[in-house]
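If you are new to this repository, start here. Below is one unmodified record pulled from the training split, so you can see the exact layout before writing a loader.
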Amino acid sequence: MALHSSTGTGRKIFIMVYELDDRLKANHLFEGWKETLIYSCLQNVMGKIFVTDLDAPKSAMAYVGCFAFYAGEHSKELVMTKPDGFVIMIPQNEKWEACIEDCFSDAKKVTRYAIKKDTQFDEFFFAQSDKRYS
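And here is the target side for that same chain:
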């Protein structure tokens, strides 16, 4: 699939970016990144994974909702072919961050605070809270 992207000068460039069907090939790129949206993409629950090399991906973009997570080796091709419209672009590291800033110098950079990912249910706390409101 060829996606086009504007260069900012009115010219369009064409880059080959592919949707990855065998998502297991991208697992290693997102290893250690504990993000539910990425897991959903990798498990083929929702979202899509895009790469520039179907056989041996070295970089990937996990796209779900309006979030694009960039992992592996930084790739201007993947950044420049972000989906149209509003996209929150999340870099895996400083190299990806610099790549995104190079490609979209006018983008607004913000710090996004994650939701606490504590998956432990505290039964004692719940029981105490329930007693207070009874």
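Two things worth knowing about this chain: The two ends are 59 Å apart (CA to CA). Residues 74 and 96 are 5 Å apart (CA to CA).
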